[in-house]
Amino acid sequence: MTKNQLIKRVPLFIVFALTLLVSALVYAAKINPPATMPEFTQVDEVAWFNSKPLRSEDLRGKVVLIDVWTYGCWNCYNSFPWLRGVEEKFADQAFTVIGIHTPEFDREKERENVLKKIEEFELHHPVMMDNDKAYWRALRNRYWPAYYIVDKKGNIRDAFIGETHEGDRRAKKIEKLISKLLKE
Questions:
Q1: Region of residue 11 (phi > 0: left; psi between -120 and 50: alpha; otherwise: beta)
Q2: Domain count, the chain
Q3: Could you give the CA distance from residue 65 to residue 96 in angstroms, rounded to a whole number?
Q4: pLDDT tens per residue, range 23-54
Q5: CATH number of the CATH domain containing 117
Q6: Domain ranges, residue 100
Q7: What are 10-27's pLDDT values in tens digits?
């Protein structure tokens, strides 16, 4: 192969290599949740906001959207308007959102700080503080924000990661799944 032929093939090789890299990153960014919704790991009332401590059996018969977030995450903040919209859209149906606040940094473990953010972002659904990341691990989660959609029987039917906005592809897919599960 001549030098000129090699130079012409290098850009093609780079495109191919970048395609492989992007594919690997997308594959790595998937969530592999357990088959069923794990039992909530915090039973102390201090670890819950907007609700008494819940058990997974308390939610049987409802479609549940589990929102894993932390108050240091801008992608989480940016998703809250959509999340509130989903709550409003399905408010009169057997649907609920459960927030799981899993801190990344020590300062995010302080109850008063979490409460201030819940109030600031007008979150009215139950939120459990997951300071020891026990629920995070039970979900096999690795990302903020992450959304787990649970059917009426407690089975995790799908999981989504990343900032979500009303009308975007992810939001439409989540809302379509919730509608489908509510009809089951």
A1: alpha
A2: 1
A3: 6
A4: 444 444 567 899 999 999 999 999 999 999 99
A5: 3.40.30.10
A6: 36-183
A7: 555 554 544 444 444 444
